[in-house]
Amino acid sequence: MQIITEQNLRNLIDLLVKEAKLVVGPKLSGSVVLYEPLTAGTELTLDALPRRSSKELFFPVCEDILSYKREGGAMKVTDVDRSKFPETVLFGAPPCDAGSPSILDAVMSWDYKDEFYLERRKKSTIVGIACTKGDDACFCRAVGLAPDTENGSDLFLTPLKDGSYACNAVTEKGQALVAAHKNLFAEGAGAEPVPFVDQAVQKLDLVKIKKWLEEHFEDPLWERIADICVGCGACAFICPACHCFDINDEGSTDDGVRRKHWDACGFAKFTNHASGHNPRDVQNKRYRNRIMHKFKYYDDKFGKTLCTGCGRCIRACPVGIDIAEILETINGKAE
Amino acid sequence: MCESKNIYLPNLATIETIVDETPDVRTLRLVFQDEAVRENFNFRAGQFAEYSSFGFGESTFCIASAPTRKGYIECCFRSVGRVTESLRRLEVGDTVGVRGPYGNSFPIEEFYGKSLVFIAGGIALPPLRTVIWNCLDLRDKFKDITIVYGARSEADLVYKHELKEWQERGDVRLVKCVDPGGAGPDFDGKVGFVPTVLEEAAPSAENTIALVCGPPIMIKFTLPVLERLGFSDDNIYTTLENRMKCGVGKCGRCNVGNVYVCKDGPVFTAREVKAMSQEF
Ligand SMILES: Cc1cc2nc3c(=O)[nH]c(=O)nc-3n(C[C@H](O)[C@H](O)[C@H](O)COP(=O)(O)OP(=O)(O)OC[C@H]3O[C@@H](n4cnc5c(N)ncnc54)[C@H](O)[C@@H]3O)c2cc1C
Ligand code: SF4
Ligand code: SF4
Ligand code: FES
């Protein structure tokens, strides 16, 4: 087994920074931990799940997709130079974050290819880490992941009781990262792994849940659980798997940029037609779409669940809507 | 510069002509500025595009001209908001962006040898107008062609000069109508709502395809009439106009249940529409 000491892990970050890579990892920013660019290995903070997901590394909150400028009389549109996107290493993502790109790859690459996402994805290496810091909102086990799921990571670290990490190079990218810095890794038996935190939510039967959703588009459940939703969109913006976006121009009619930026199906205007007709005219229909999209439609289309069980939406919701509890309720109803 | 293709990059087009169809509906005829695009831009009737007004953003409209008419495309839109109002401020010679064509289309080849009934309400004539001209340009491939078109008032009827042209052709039956109270003293059409007028016109369902576009309320009342006339759900086509942004199956806005209207639609049969989660 390959082992890396904590010191060497931090040294690895220093080296990657020196190689001019963009290194991103959990870092204390004010009073919260966020995924932020690291300038030194000492900044890596592995004792809390970052408040926001690592999705924005591949799919930023807001990004330019083109610029336009009127030159003389003629309008000129210029593409964004995606070859300038930096080589990136994401450090310390637990399975619920490390697993999100492999879910989003499906929608971003079917038929038309979103090269903004795909180029960033191609240029990134994900160093995942087994999660030993779960809290009572976590439910990754219920949606088919686990605190030690390696899938989604290129290199996977398992924290050991002596402070070092067992390393498994899951993909070629992970192998390349290890090969390029061989002297930081050592062969060894390794100490015992740090135990995981137990999760409150038991394993859900996602197939059963999906079938229930298929048969209960109309159901009193939706009003009961979601009429209190205030449509703030926090659950979508904080989610590692939500991918809805809007496209808007910023600038004058002569000079500006067109941008793609996150949007949320919980917003009242999301589906509003120009005529005033709105297919999802009340909040519970919007919340129903959130659940349906994650646990039915995305699976219908791409064979994947659009949720990693990170629990962020549960922690963030101002009115206490708990997606895990809803899934448990449905699981209980489903036959 | 990078090699990868940016799916959000529009082609630039110049406004060649502007026609005001009604006080708030306008047709733009657009000519692509790049010669290669101008020559290679192909689409099928029923497809849509994202039209942009720089500084304001993009709007989704169908391509309202016929694929059989080359060298230009047309869009026809009602001014209702930010982008459409800014498009309205543009003049002949100005530049707009066009991304597309996107979405599926009417399977016109499958309609060869059959009669066609077009039923449209208000601003929803453009998505059918492309099919109408497509079929009229191939007139001998079809049997009877009937067009039932209605709007709130005479002033709201779009493509007035084309309605006249269709009325004068011997090979098309045009039934135009306006809602009660919407007719002027010289109106030469019928007065009544589209579903009622359709029922009176009673086109035969025998070997016939019905194509319906209009506001949700019109569609809702038209489908039972078609059923009474003997049309099966497989022989009725319509388009859905769920709000869109990307047009290419990424942004998550246009879905009706697990159907992405921008990819799987916008053209559907009545059978397909009835099988969907009722969210449009
Ligand atoms: C496949 C398809 C084909 C279509 N084809 C056509 C076509 O051929 N012709 C056509 O005219 N239309 C067509 N449409 C509809 C068209 O896309 C919309 O009318 C258009 O995009 C409206 O854009 P806008 O920016 O002008 O309106 P927006 O500014 O987005 O406004 C839309 C409506 O929302 C209201 N609104 C916006 N923001 C707010 C707010 N903050 N608070 C309250 N109200 C608000 C506005 O008052 C307005 O009524 C089609 C749509 C689809 C999906
Ligand atoms: S839906 Fe909630 S729990 Fe699931 S991935 Fe998104 S934020 Fe995490
Ligand atoms: S965070 Fe809660 S209140 Fe806000 S949109 Fe999501 S479910 Fe609704
Ligand atoms: S319009 Fe973006 S997914 Fe259909």
Structure description:
The complex is a heterodimer of chains A (335) and B (280). Chain A has helices at 6-18, 95-98, 100-109, 115-122, 172-180, 206-215, 220-226, 234-237, 283-302, 312-316, 323-333, and strands at residues 2-4, 22-29, 32-37, 62-71, 74-79, 88-93, 124-129, 155-159, 165-169, 186-187, 245-251, 255-262. Chain A is an alpha+beta fold. Chain A has one domain (2-333). Chain A has an 8-stranded mixed beta sheet. In chain A, a hairpin with a 3-residue loop joins strand 11 (245-251) and strand 12 (255-262). The radius of gyration of chain A is 21 Å and the shape is globular. Chain B is of the alpha/beta class. Chain B has 2 domains: 11-102, Translation factors (Elongation Factor Tu (Ef-tu), domain 3, Beta Barrel); 108-239, Nucleotide-binding domain of ferredoxin-NADP reductase (FNR) module (Rossmann fold, 3-Layer(aba) Sandwich), CATH 3.40.50.80. Helices cover 23% and strands 30% of the residues of chain B. Chain B contains 8 helices and 15 strands. A 7-stranded mixed beta sheet of chain B has the order 10-9-8-7-11-12-15, with helices on both faces. Chain B has a 6-stranded antiparallel beta sheet with strand order 4-3-6-1-2-5. Chain B has a two-stranded antiparallel ribbon with strand order 13-14. In chain B, helix 5 (194-201) runs parallel beside helix 6 (216-228). The model of chain B has no long low-confidence stretch (mean pLDDT 93). The interface between A and B is large, with 56 and 48 residues. The complex binds flavin-adenine dinucleotide, iron/sulfur cluster (2 copies) and FE2/S2 (inorganic) cluster.
